[in-house]
Automatic annotation (TrEMBL), chains A, B:
InterPro entries: Class_I_gatase-like (IPR029062), DJ-1/PfpI (IPR002818), INH-QAR (IPR052158). This is DJ-1/PfpI family protein. It holds the Pfam family DJ-1_PfpI. Residues 2-161 form the DJ-1/PfpI domain.
Length: 208, 208
């Protein structure tokens, strides 16, 4: 079971690592980080590089695709190398997945037309403009397409997908070994729960 | 505010990325990944490499240190390059932190003697043998030493520490932008909550 996590310049690190750490715990999982070219790929802060061990061309038929997001929409939606690989790989996948604004890449590739999907809360409207039926849920399954909300939600997505693939007990074992018993010190993780002025500040920065 | 995340062969990826993504959102945060030598460092599965942009020698006086864990205890506790750097850096840090079995490195370096600390649930006894007062809590503050439980707990630790450093509102903004509103599909993230036979299976594998 080959699981390809697609990297591109300015991706968000935790978007990629949440599914990596959870899906990577599946028996038989052969995870590979891929990018247009093999080699280091910098994240959105420029302060971290993950190594893509293979190029897109090296990995034409993964069983599972994971696309992380990143804060600059055009990095996903105008990235022809990424979109072309996604379209070709998707023809053979059993699951095609995204975290955060990675769903904009799937949608821009034409893979989410009319499908229910999610994205970072600041990108939900944009996701709709690319043809998906945008929901505010944290993890959305629509057929073989699985999309997760912002950044950290890739952990929840990875566990949910692990359960679908290998059963509840295997997913629970992964949860136990990653000690995923969340105890956030605040309850501000969604626009419904966070202080309204913070939500508005971020919405205004996106509008600007 | 220089934040140094220490890498070593066979570290666990999410241990490093949880604090990276949360603490990296602090205003003025200058995060740097460091290792004995600059260059790619492989994780515990061998399937992922993060790039250490600097060597330990390049970063002698970070303000904050983060040590991730990894499944092979001796990778932390017998790693003299890591332990030596931790001791020297700790003399100047404002915060010295760990995730998962990274606390075994701090303890082996002599930095947690008699202090309250935590670790991955499977490593709590071992942490006690290295001189810390082991607790089962998810995030433990003892003076400037902050330790987190297994793997995913570094996200909670990063947010809690962000709040201490920059105030609640900044930490809430980080939580909102990382959309950390956890919705695990199972409630099996701790040995108290997971199915007993899974807990016993992992305990038996550690004993073996």
């Amino acid at each position: 079971m080959q699981i390809a996590i697609a990297l591109y310049e300015r991706f968000t690190a935790l978007d990629a690592i949440g599914p990596y750490q959870t899906l990577g715990g599946l028996p038989g999982a052969d995870v590979v980080l891929v990018a247009e070219q093999a080699g280091p790929v910098r994240d959105d802060s420029g302060r971290l590089a993950l190594v893509a061990d293979k190029s897109f061309a090296d990995v034409p038929r993964p069983d599972i695709v994971v696309v992380p997001g990143g804060p600059e929409q055009r990095d996903q939606t105008e990235n022809e190398a990424l979109l072309g690989w996604l379209r070709a790989a998707d023809a053979h996948t059993t699951w095609t997945t995204s975290v955060c604004t990675g769903s904009l890449a799937l949608a821009a590739a034409g893979l989410l037309d009319g499908r229910e999907a999610t994205s970072h809360w600041l990108a939900l409207e944009e996701l709709g403009r690319f043809g998906a039926r945008s929901t505010g849920q944290r993890v959305v399954f629509d057929g073989k397409y699985v999309t997760a909300a912002g950044v950290s939600s890739g952990i929840d997505m990875g566990l949910a997908l692990a359960g679908r693939i290998a059963g509840d007990e295997t997913a629970q074992a992964i949860q136990l070994m990653t000690e995923y018993d969340p105890q956030p010190p605040y309850d501000a993780g969604s626009p419904e729960k966070a202080p309204a002025h913070l939500v508005e500040r971020f919405r205004a920065s996106v509008r600007a």
